[in-house]
């Protein structure tokens, strides 16, 4: 690779012409071979173009002096090198360095280019992290190597996820609510928990062979929350039963309403932290366009209490699918799996629950438990189901909920628990530190919510503020000049002046660019 912009421009032109010749002379090649070779050569061409970009920006940079925030003058000192790990490969980037003993130092070009703290480009980071939210980090390394020919270790990917998840909370705090015209009139929240396997911080985790009952990991609950709006969808209990038991109704049920602007989050910091974040988002979504507010959870009492505490004014609903599972648990004790009466028994009582006859179902369960021919195991399950319904009776007015068109099942949060947590954190052999798992949960939520590009734009801006104490400027692009212009070499050739103050001037840059 040449060490000046004029030669690089010529090399780029020659490489492009070579690629055209390659296409013209490809009669005997397969489509796969041509596509593969074009891709590889484009990566090399991209590396040359990116290197040219950095060289031109370095050539245009000021080398007189810079003024600190305190008004001190820093003279030009030398050219400093850093490595830029791009999708095209690693590049040397030389920048003017300003320094004065006892005053300080500065590299203004780093701020102008909004470079990060380490060598990895933002594009590499975002691609690796996008792959990493869905795949094991080792797999990400393999994919980067296969696609781009770049060596990116799994530890590097893990560190990127940790660093770039730090602004997720701030992003959602500043994110505007959807337009009221795009929202439904029912504001819905859901919450549930899903275990994440964490590495034990004990000697058992390092043993070659575990003792009886010992495990290398323990599970910690990730609290998953969601918020969305939906339009009312009135249903009849019979419609819901027909859907659950896959029976066709004579009259087609109303078209199912879909959640609008669904947003999910997950955290290992506990229920209160999760619900505090949820309440913050709810406050932004609320307004005059919202007519009703409902919260769906399972029967976990600790979660129900906290939802009511953090979200006053919401009507708590016991997820009907969870309630229905308790009926199935009782039926599985009363009947054999192949007994046709099992399905009949569950279907009848499902309709009773949906029709507002929950107290009658509780009484029937308790009466059945007292029958002389009921076995102890059956009696225990019947009482367990009755007790569950009795404790949640205030949250089981399903006939009223259906009449108002409210949702009664927490399918959104069940799906989030599966997609957000289980599908990634319970891959074979996965064990996590809490910090690593928390970072990944944050970025997975960003991806799941469709906020990926918007979030990373916000993250880059926040990083720029932290590093340089200012907002990133909207730098104007370099003047566009066709590569075949006869004036390109002259226009972009480096102009090397004399050395001053005993320091190397830009001529040093030309010698070092090839390093």
Task: Give a verbal description of the structure.
The strands form 2 sheets. Strands 7-6-5-8-9 form a 5-stranded mixed beta sheet. The protein has a 4-stranded antiparallel beta sheet with strand order 1-2-3-4, with helices on both faces. 49% of the residues lie in helices and 15% in strands. It starts with a helix and ends with a helix. It is α+β, with helices and mostly antiparallel strands and 515 residues long. It has 3 domains: 5-114 and 472-512, no CATH class; 124-164; 180-445, no CATH class. α1 runs antiparallel to α2 (31-60), α5 packs across α6 and α11 packs antiparallel against α14 (376-391). The longest helix is centred in the first third of the chain and has 30 residues, at 31-60. α10 links the parallel β8 and β9 (315-318).
Q: Any descriptors?
A:
515 residues; 3 domains; 9 strands; alpha+beta; 4-stranded antiparallel beta sheet; disordered C terminus
- For the record, give the distance between the C-alpha atoms at the N and C termini, rounded to a whole number: 10 Å
Count of beta strands:
9
Overall geometric form: elongated
Structural class: alpha+beta
Secondary-structure element pattern, one letter each = HHEEEEHHHHHEEHEHEHEHHHHHHHHHH
**Tally of domains:** 3
Strand content: 15-25%
Point out poorly predicted stretches: 475-515
- Strands of the widest sheet, in order across it, are 7-6-5-8-9
Multimeric organization: single chain
Task: Tell me roughly what share of residues is in helical segments.
Answer: 40-55%
Q: What is the CA-based Rg, rounded? A: 32 Å
Main sheet specs: 5 strands, mixed
Summarize model confidence as the mean pLDDT.
Answer: 87
Number of helices, where a helix is a run of at least 4 consecutive DSSP H or I residues: 20
């Amino acid at each position: 690779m040449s060490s000046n912009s004029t030669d690089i421009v010529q090399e780029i032109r020659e490489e492009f012409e070579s690629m055209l010749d390659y296409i013209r002379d490809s009669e005997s090649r397969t489509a796969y071979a041509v596509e593969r070779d074009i891709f590889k050569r484009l990566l090399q061409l991209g590396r040359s173009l990116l290197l040219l970009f950095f060289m031109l920006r370095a050539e245009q940079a000021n080398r007189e002096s810079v003024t600190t925030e305190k008004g001190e003058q820093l003279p030009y000192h030398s050219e400093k090198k850093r490595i830029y790990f791009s999708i095209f490969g690693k590049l040397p980037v030389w920048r003017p360095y300003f320094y004065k003993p006892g005053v300080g130092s500065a590299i203004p070009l780093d701020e102008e280019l909004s470079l990060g703290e380490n060598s990895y480009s933002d594009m590499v980071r975002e691609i690796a992290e996008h792959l990493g939210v869905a795949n094991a980090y080792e797999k990400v390394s393999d994919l980067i190597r296969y696609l781009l020919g770049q060596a990116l270790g799994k530890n590097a990917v893990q560190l990127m996820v940790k660093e770039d998840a730090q602004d997720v909370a701030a992003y959602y705090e500043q994110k505007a609510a959807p337009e009221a015209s795009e929202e439904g009139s029912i504001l819905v929240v859901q919450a549930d928990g899903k275990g994440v396997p964490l590495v034990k911080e004990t000697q058992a985790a390092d043993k070659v062979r575990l003792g009886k009952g010992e495990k290398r990991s323990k599970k910690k609950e990730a609290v998953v929350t969601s918020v969305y709006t939906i339009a009312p969808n009135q249903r009849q209990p019979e419609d819901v039963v027909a859907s659950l038991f896959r029976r066709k109704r004579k009259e087609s049920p109303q078209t199912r309403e879909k959640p609008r602007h669904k947003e999910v989050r997950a955290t290992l910091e506990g229920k209160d932290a999760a619900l505090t974040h949820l309440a913050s988002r709810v406050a932004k979504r609320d307004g005059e366009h919202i007519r009703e507010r409902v919260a769906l959870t399972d029967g976990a009492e600790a979660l129900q209490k906290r939802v009511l505490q953090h979200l006053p004014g919401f009507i708590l609903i016991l997820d009907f699918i969870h309630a229905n599972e308790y009926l199935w648990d009782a039926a599985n004790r009363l009947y054999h799996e192949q007994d046709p009466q099992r399905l009949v028994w569950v279907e009848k009582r499902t309709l009773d629950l949906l029709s507002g006859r929950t107290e009658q179902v509780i009484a029937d369960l308790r009466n059945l438990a007292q029958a002389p021919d009921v076995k102890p195991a059956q009696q225990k399950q019947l009482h367990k189901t009755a007790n569950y319904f009795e404790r949640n009776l205030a949250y089981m007015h399903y006939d009223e909920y259906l009449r108002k068109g409210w949702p009664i099942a927490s399918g959104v949060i069940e799906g989030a628990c599966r997609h957000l947590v289980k599908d990634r954190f319970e891959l074979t052999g996965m064990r996590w530190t809490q910090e690593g798992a928390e970072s990944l949960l944050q970025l997975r939520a960003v991806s799941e919510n469709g906020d990926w590009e918007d979030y990373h734009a916000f993250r880059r801006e926040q990083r720029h503020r932290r590093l340089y104490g200012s907002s990133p400027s909207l730098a104007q692009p370099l003047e566009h000049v066709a590569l075949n212009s006869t004036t390109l070499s002259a226009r972009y050739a480096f102009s090397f002046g004399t050395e001053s103050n005993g320091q190397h001037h830009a001529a040093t840059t030309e010698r070092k660019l090839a390093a």
